[in-house]
Design brief:
By secondary structure, this protein is mainly α. The protein is 74% helix and 2% strand. It has a two-stranded antiparallel ribbon with strand order 1-2.
């Protein structure tokens, strides 16, 4: 069993779970996220591996996101076991400690990759194709992805420096995260909030604004610079061009707002509760909401992409790589 009494601060006991059925609900939701997330992220990774048309620079980040989420989902069953155990962690301590480290690693990398995808799409839309490829070289992509993994690894290293047993079973929440009654718990919570939240959110917000501003300005330029030809082919061409760009504007705006909304809805509650005292009973629920990041990302970045839809359909029908590559009509974007 995990024992950290020597380094823990003396705090009044807080009963997070009033009834055992609460544990059952949380454990069941975590198990469901694990199953759905594992299947969804595997589909994304396999689709990119099998389809040549999906092997783009943008999708390198999508695959990195899926790998991070897949690692999280594969390890979630340990979390379900922890939540269901009323009398402490029933298995060897190192398993729970490893689960805590894996959660920090996968969630941190996932959040930073979300920001990277937003920046990549912003550059793809607002810059010329030549400039985009100049910025997103193989070396730069590798450096970016490495950075996304190094940041959470550094956070894990800091957690390990707090002493043996800091990462592992939380007696208060019955979860494999970290000792929430340790002397350095508040410091670590603030560290997580500062490192994992502002930078990805800033990248998503700034990229979304730049895309919105670019599309809006481009639409206005089309409206003012296109020659006004009354009747005939000219008028039809102008109307068609405006209509097509208007649809593109709406699609881009909706997708970006969806990304921001999902980020805020899933990440913000847990991020806030880390540094705001008095909300202990909300932590398990907000933790489950945070874990939904690993489950929903394949649907946001996969099912909304026309070529991923085709690839998913072929994979679910057990079709071959040749059929996926041949029947997909997606034009590579970079």
């Amino acid at each position: 069993m995990n024992t950290t009494e020597s380094t823990a601060t003396m705090q009044p006991a807080i009963k997070v779970y009033d009834y055992y059925w609460e544990r059952i609900i949380y454990a069941s939701l975590i198990a469901l996220i694990s199953i759905v997330g594992t299947l969804g992220n595997c589909l994304v990774i396999i689709a990119v591996c099998l389809s040549r048309k999906l092997r783009t620079k943008t999708n390198v980040l999508v695959v990195n996101l899926s790998v991070a989420d897949l690692i999280s989902c594969i390890n979630l069953p340990w979390m379900s076991i922890a939540v269901l155990s009323e009398n402490g962690w029933p298995l060897p301590d190192w398993i729970c400690s490893l689960e805590g480290a894996v959660m920090i690693l996968s969630i941190g990398c996932s959040l930073y990759t979300l920001g990277g995808i937003a920046v990549s799409r912003c550059c793809l839309i607002t810059l010329s194709r030549a400039r985009y490829h100049e910025l997103f070289t193989t070396f730069n992509m590798a450096a970016m992805i490495t950075f996304f993994w190094v940041v959470p690894i550094a956070v894990i290293a800091i957690a390990l420096s707090f002493g043996k047993g800091f990462l592992g079973y939380s007696e208060r929440y019955s979860m494999c995260i970290w000792d929430t009654q340790h002397t350095y718990t508040k410091t670590f919570n603030v560290l997580l909030m500062v490192v994992f939240y502002p930078i990805p959110l800033g990248a998503i917000s700034v990229s979304s604004y730049k895309i919105w501003h670019f599309v809006r300005s481009h639409t206005r330029r089309i409206a003012t610079t296109m020659p006004s030809v009354s009747g005939g082919i000219g008028a039809g061409t102008t109307t068609t061009t405006k209509s097509q760009f208007s649809k593109r504007q709406m699609a881009v705006t909706k997708n970006l707002f969806l990304i921001i909304a999902m980020f805020l809805v899933l990440m913000s509650p847990y991020g806030v509760i880390l540094v705001v005292p008095g909300g202990e009973k909300l932590v398990p629920g907000f933790g489950v909401i945070l874990l939904l990041n690993s489950c929903t990302n394949p649907f946001i970045y996969g099912t909304r992409h026309p070529d991923f839809k085709i690839a998913f359909r072929h994979l679910l029908r057990c079709k071959t790589n040749f059929q996926i590559a041949r029947e997909s009509s997606f034009r590579p974007e970079g």
